[in-house]
Amino acid sequence: MALSRSQFFTLLSAGVAGAILASPLKAFTTPLPGASTLLAQTPPVAAPAVTSVSDMNIFQAFILGLVQGLTEFLPISSTAHLKVVPVLLGWGDPGSAFTAVIQLGSIAAVLWYFWSDLSQVVNGAVRALVRREYDDKDFRIALGIALGTLPIIVGGILIKVFVPDYDNSPLRSLGAIAIASIVMAVLLGVAESIGKRKRDFSQLGMQDGILMGLAQAMALIPGVSRSGSTLTAGLFMGLERATAARFSFLLGIPAITLAGLVELKDVVTGGFAGVGALPLLVGVISSAVFSYISIAWLIRFLQTQSTLVFVVYRLLFGLAILASIAARQPWTVGQ
Predict the structure, then answer these.
(1) CB 7: neighbour CB atoms within 10 A?
(2) DSSP string spanning 120-163?
(3) b/e per residue, 135-167, with b = 16+ CB within 10 A?
(4) How many CB atoms lie within 10 A of CB 117?
């Protein structure tokens, strides 16, 4: 018997809470930063990095969860913002362990929002497979999502094998993030201008999943944005804006889930040693809430509005980073 949405998320919540609370409770190990700390711009003094989650307080965890939630599904790159925003606030790099954990919130949000769609596609695909009705719409969409997930998996494996120090590679530098943001802004603008936007969700097929999956693999480069690259591809493919966003989110569920599990593996096997349980929990909840809000808002927004606002934002974001580099600002992003 299939699990209902509430049953699934009850089990998921219990598992996440159990894993987090298995670590020592260190709720307020670091005092909240005052306004002077956030606003101070003292060039000779480098901002101390948040080297572990135990160095992070609840306020910081909430803000980083908010950043993760708002930027994971908007076409503006969550990776770029999670690297830049905490450094600008003087907190340093929160580290891969914390970002891997709070990504669970985004995963939960997209599963919750699209649970009915997922149930329909999965059940319909299984039924079509049993009946050998391979032209069934749900089967074609499910197969497209499965095949579309392969490029980013293969790309991730190749990076792990051939670029072992990828976290410190030039592709993850501020300059590369800025350039990627600008390039994707231009591509999104072109797609918005020439895309026919006539195809709805009922017209999706296997080939759409493959093409959008290839675009999704580009998101392995920080600053590209998984939702940005797939939304751009969808517009080039003639999909309606809201349809492109909806299919992008469905296609992203396996990729986001697998990425979160891979990044989380070392943290889980280490038993969350030295990690504050309450900041972690706050970060996950914050990420889940704002992820859900951003998904719902974006789909409604794209039903009536263009993507121009994201094109402009990405251009300004990239140019601001390049301007800061050119001005030789003292802050840098730790890897």
Answers:
(1) 11
(2) HHHHHHHHHHHHT-TT-HHHHHHHHHHHHHHHHHHHHHHHHHH-
(3) ebbbbbbbbbbbebbebbbebbeeeeeeeeeee
(4) 16
Q: What is the SS3 assignment for 287?
A: helix
Any bridge partners for residue 239, and if so which? 199
CA 320 to centroid of chain Cα atoms: 22
Q: 260 phi and psi, to 5 degrees?
A: -65, -40
DSSP, collapsed to helix, strand or coil, labels residue 199 as strand
Q: pLDDT value at position 332? A: 52
- Closest listed residue to residue 88, CA positions, set 30, 33, 169: 33
- Give ∠ CA 281-282-288 in degrees, rounded to 5: 90
Report the run of H or E that residue 83 belongs to, with start and end: helix 78-88
The residue type found at 52 is S
* pLDDT tens digits for range 1-45: 455 655 555 555 555 555 444 444 333 334 444 433 433 333 333
DSSP for 307-333, written as a single string: SHHHHHHHHHHHHHHHHHHHTT-S---
| DSSP bridge pairs for 199 | 239
Contact 50, 94 (CB under 8 A): yes
How far apart are alpha carbons 317 and 325 in whole angstroms? 13
Asked if residue 206 lies in contact with residue 143, where contact means CB atoms within 8 angstroms, the answer is yes
| Nearest CA-CA partner of 26 in 280, 305, 327 | 280
Residue tagged 């340093």 (tokens) = 92
Taking CA atoms, 221 is separated from 13, 139, 159, in Å, by: 31, 31, 11
Cα R_g (the chain), whole angstroms: 20
C-beta atoms surrounding 89 within 10 Å: 17
Q: pLDDT tens-digit profile of 283-310?
A: 999 999 999 999 999 999 999 999 999 9
3 state SS of 79: helix
Q: Which pTM does this prediction carry?
A: 0.79
